[in-house]
Amino acid sequence: MDMKFVDDLYEMYKNHLTGDEEDAYIIVDGILQEISKEDVKKLIDELSDNERFEMFGMYLYETFRLKVAQEGIGETLNEDDQGKGYIH
């Protein structure tokens, strides 16, 4: 995603970054606390179709990834795995 808003945001904060992934979270969270719903809609409208697709794709990916982690997938067997490789 090569959005001017992100480029401007980076320029504003680049001298304050430590290289930690948490930097991005803190900065984005602060921006989201201050930005209005109308501003969000305006920024989304300014995105190209490809950028909107990428943004929604990242949202789906992260939401799905969090759901999998919350449900503990990988710690239990899926229904279709029952009995495979296990002695009953």
From TrEMBL:
Q: Pfam families from the entry?
A: DUF6154
Q: Which domain of life is it from?
A: Bacteria
What's the protein called, per UniProt? DUF6154 family protein
